[in-house]
Fold this sequence. Notes:
Number of helices: 27
Helix content: 25-40%
Strand content: 5-15%
Organism: Rubripirellula amarantea
Low-confidence stretches: 1-27
Protein name: Planctomycete cytochrome C
Structural class: alpha+beta
Largest sheet: 6 strands, antiparallel
Domain DUF1592: 465-592
Domain DUF1588: 611-707
Mean pLDDT: 89
Oligomer: single chain
Shape: flat
Keywords: Signal
Number of domains: 4
Amino acid sequence: xxxxxxxLIAVSVCVLSPLRGFAKDSSATQPPAITMRLVERSxxxxxxxPDGEGGLDLTALSTDLSDPNVAMAWVRIxxxxxxxxxxxxxxxxxxxxxxxxxxxxxxxxxxxxxxxQFEQFGRVQGRRLTNSELxxxxxxxxxxxxxxxxxxxxxxRNDGFIGIADSQSMSHYQMESxxxxxxxxxxxxxDRIVGPTSPxxxxxxxxxxxxxxxxxxxxxxxxxxxxxxxxxxKMIFYGRMTSTTSPEDGWYRITFKASGLKPPEGxxxxxxxxxxxxxxxxxxxxxxxxxAATKDPAVHVYDAWIPAGxxxxxxxxxxxxxxxxxxxxxxxxxxxxxxxxPGVALHSLKMERIYPKGDPVETxxxxxxxxxxxxxxxxxxIELKSKTPDAALARQLRSFMHSAFRRPVPQNVVNAYSKxxxxxxxxxxxxxxxxxxxxxxxLCSPRFIYRVEPFEDSSSGSSLLDQYxxxxxxxxxxxxxxxxxxLLQLAADGQLSDPNVLHQQVDRLxxxxxxxxxxxxxxxxxxxxxxxxxTEPDPGLYRNYDPVVQNAMLDExxxxxxxxIDKDLPIQNLVRSDFTYLNSRLAxxxxxxxxxxxxxxxxxxxxxxxxxxxxxxxxxxxVTANGTTTSPVLRGVWVSERILGTEIPPPPxxxxxxxxxxxxxxxxxxxxxxxxxxxxxxxxxxxIDPPGYALENFDxxxxxxxxxxxxxxxxxxxxxxxxxxxxxxxxxxxEDFNQFRDLVSADTDALARNVVEKLLTYGTGATIKxxxxxxxxTIVKQTKSDRHxxxxxxxxxxxxxxxxxK
Length: 806
């Protein structure tokens, strides 16, 4: 009988290309005889022609591995046979020697072909800076701090990651947005040089914070006993302060003293700080932070980017607080206090312009170097003062190009841009403006836009990156921006092939200041945390959820991963740990009662707690739900692919998706059990369902629940009870979430393998190919003695052949 219902159904989801006349005499493209013999003997019978089982026609399956879809299909065939999923139990048994021989020779065929492609073309081709990398590179290059990614075209994601070379393009839309970003960056930089020499500082006492007219109904704070007060309310823009309106785009340090009024018993008043235009025509607000207003006044400091014309809003933001009600959309003096609701009182506020990436003096140094110039601030003009202007400008241009291109620049390239500069001056442009326009051309060059990653010795067939390419890859991997002077000097000295030097640089770049940035960048893509705002939990169902909780959830995950890297904690902590990070608001949301204080801090969990590990983090629960209901399929696929490293192919097109019953009349488990009776679904659901069911006790807002919501049931006991029990693909059974975590955390090699693959994908810009598997396994083995510590995994990744090769 046949080899393979489950395998071939899974393969059928690929777009398989028909035979297309590839080179028959090329041994690299020819499959081993045993591969074709096994397929022809055991598979063709059921998978022949357009009506083949699962929609798969094996007679049309090409063996041209240069087609990514074809290669993916053969990899899946190999994996299904190797894992014993083929043939299925009701088909003929496949003898172990034959299975081993088939998988060994098929693996060699695929690996040999891919490795030959790597040697010829490199594993990664044409990798462009992502929007975030471009923004940070321009900011660091020019010492400016203006957000630029908002000017750029949206980017696609591949395997969860943005910077995958195969998914990047450079259409005229991308080029147009790139030019917009470059122009905005250069304009900001040159404007800063000729701008005011002293930054704005605005100090506001309570009477300046509160409404100008004490009798006027509005949404600004009111004066109460000498303080500017805002009460808890759902009214939009309430708590805005018109006196904080920003005079210009920029970063500002906001320092204020605040206290809580009428707090609930045993609690303080959690408040939000946001910025926005605070008008109906521009209703979006930007998050700055949150704090707990205590009875005793306390000083709080936040840094935020605030566009011109936007103002600051500070208000109680805890959804669990009693809310005041105001008539007519405005607030009159004294209307909130009689309602006996909590509030926040501001004692003072200071707003100061800051320059996180460097002050105007540093911006001038980056753009003009040691050029002798005079600055007329009234006329907004920079004039060059030099007896040898051509030589001075050429010297500065070369220095700028070296920084922008992130490596030494060949003389012929320097000459081409120097000629452009000279032509601009000859045409009548003032020297500094001509220099600016030449900078624009430099920043639109492929040498700036793309990662230049030449082979160190391409003549020998080696694909090892040269020293500057290693410096760039390491910098963008760990910092998301261009390499600093230390890395460039190490590249110049030829030291970045030394594993010890690379380990030292990992420690340096992931110090206390650099680690949080890497964690946020990596987790945003790996764990989908960039999608945290994509949905909003239904306020009618999840009334305790609010922006304070959401941002505390993000802090929980970021700080948790930060500690795993800092202390090189074993990989099993990802799913089974005895600690997390909380503030009092998130602890209350989770129902954790033994948490003291308001500040976010490390909290040791009780042994019976379900909160240890990423799978219990509220941020993860939110991004894997739709805001109203949960789906074991969606969460199961997410856990399989992001944590367990098990690829789940998309479902066959002829199988309809299961839509949860939002009335609650039937549970999602009851619906899925009928759904997976279809043989086309069973092969994948055996992997999807275990984590999906195990996480069902977490609702879309990240809270623990024992029963489903049911609109028709009166009384909680009549609502359907959640059953998280199931069995692993290996047959091991679990009864609840804790038992599931125990089973998953025991396979530390699998957890480490997944993290290595995600780090390599993120760091190199290419998804893991079949030929990469050997290097991945080597890293897993190398770090086993360190219990696969998180920093150990990162260090092993950056010294691996996969990371150091084109």
